[in-house]
Amino acid sequence: ALSYHGYVISTHLLIIVGPSIPDDLLADFEKLGVVILEQRPVPTDALDGVELVVRFEGSAADLSAVASEHGVDVALLPVGSSVSRGLICLDCDSTLITGEVIEMLAAHAGKEAEVAEVTDRAMRGELDFEESLRERVAVLKGLDESVIATVSQAIELTPGVKDALATLKTQGYRVAVVSGGFIQVLEPLARELDLDYVRANTLEIEDGRLTGRVTGKVVDRKAKEEFLREFAADLGLEMEQTVAVGDGANDIDMINASGLGIAFNAKPALREHADVAINLPTLAGLVQILGASSLRDDK
Question: What is 87-295's CATH number, 1.10.150.530, 3.40.50.1000, 3.40.50.300, 3.90.320.10?
């Protein structure tokens, strides 16, 4: 029910984040049928933000389209939930970091463009991930293992993610990264970011050179979901208490299994499965989205 004894009852929290919040944005939202009942500022050091308690029966996609025109992101979250979320699990390439490690490695073999094309098709869901991974790794055969350290040093974290994860950890979150990339590259990041769980593929090395193969079970779409469930069970959490963040088709099962799925500058194949889409080139907004009143126990 949207009313009780004449009082209007809220249906959602609407979180808006961006470099600044345009003056005319709320008016445009009201034209879409958003009834604003309460609002409070939720700025961070990196982004401006506002949290609105609203009544809204329209389309979240319409809100996102208007938000995009104004250069901001929005998250529309149902009210009435006091779930305490305790685990956030992120994809690595193009989510935690800005690039694709396999392409950076392939550049040292003169095959970057060729590998990038296969990566893009895999992330759109057009190719089987395991098959495409093995095809791409094969071009690395013969590279000296020192290339791993070279690429690791060249990796750039996605803007805002380091501070956001540090803040979430102070709020009690555990942080995991599951990657279709490579553990040898992720391990230094895991130490830098104080990650609680890390899973990725392992590049096979013989006599100081890459063999063009990976060892063990491939971390594909299904494995990412399995790892998310494993981490939650290890922490004694229900799946509704988990958050997953990703950008490609390989993240769909993880996003679907999580309590809150967040698409970050994602391919359409993933975006349609996510609860929230972040389209700004920063993950600083995670703090506002996950700090929303409906996600806290103190409400």
Answer: 3.40.50.1000
Give yes or no for a contact between 294 and 275, defined as CB atoms under 8 angstroms apart: no
Select which of 28, 45, 93, 234 is catalytic.
Answer: 93
Query: Looking at residues 79-105, what average pLDDT do you find?
Result: 89
Distance, first Cα to last Cα, the chain: 20
pLDDT > 70? residue 180: yes
How many Å separate Cα 263 from the centre of its chain? 6
Q: Single out the catalytic residue among 23, 28, 91, 298.
A: 91
Q: Is a pLDDT exceeding 50 seen at residue 157?
A: yes
Give the pLDDT score at 293.
57
Residue 230 phi/psi, 5-degree rounding, is -65, -45
Beta pairing partners, 76: 14
Contacts 24+ apart (CB under 8 A), 207-213: 208/144, 208/145, 209/142, 209/143, 209/144, 209/145, 210/140, 210/141, 210/142, 210/143, 210/144, 210/145, 210/147, 211/141, 212/137, 212/138, 212/139, 212/140, 212/141, 212/142, 213/134, 213/137, 213/138
Secondary structure class of 213 (helix, strand, coil): strand
**Residue 91 known to be catalytic:** yes
CA distances (Å), 83 to each of 44, 261, 295, 298, in order?
A: 23, 14, 6, 10
Pair 3, 11: CB distance under 8 Å: no
